[in-house]
Design goal:
CATH architecture of the largest domain: 3-Layer(aba) Sandwich
Shape: globular
Order of helices and strands: EEHEEHEEHHEEEHEE
Largest sheet: 6 strands, mixed
Oligomer: single chain
Number of strands: 11
Radius of gyration: 17 Å
Distance between the termini: 60 Å
Number of domains: 2
Helix content: 25-40%
Length: 176
Amino acid sequence: MVSEKKISASFLGKIVIAENKGQAKELYSKSRFGEIIDNKIQYMLVEALYLIEKNKLAVKEEKKSIKKDEFMREASKKEKNFLERYIVFRDMRNRGYIVKTALKFGADFRVYDRGVKPGEDHAKWILFPVSESKGLTWHSFSAMNRVAHSTRKSLLIGIVDSESDVTYYNVAWTKP
């Protein structure tokens, strides 16, 4: 069995960057991993960890290879709620959804329905990961709802429990 060559990428603070060629380009075209910026492919930290776990990405920081556990530690220092965000990202990707950042909307992620690629149509949901142990205030819930409503997307809340299982709640507006 021939082992597939991994995409080589660099860990640069809050992003991971690879050259826009070969497997990185192919993976972007096929599954929309990363964003093309300045003719390079830029990965969110949760995306990079997912690809590391799938043996598709090799990450280096200043020419030193970074293993999965070390990458998780560093990413957790750089991003608030990294673990919850990663668990939800991984779960959605494993279910066949394309998940992209939604920071410009004031949310964690935007999620595209199965079979839809960014650029072909709009995201269906705005997704907020929440730890079951931390809970959610009415104020936070209201803010999430406003973001979803203003972006004309459905609100999806992913609750991560102590076993790292995710339960999703789809919140929708109704008119009585």
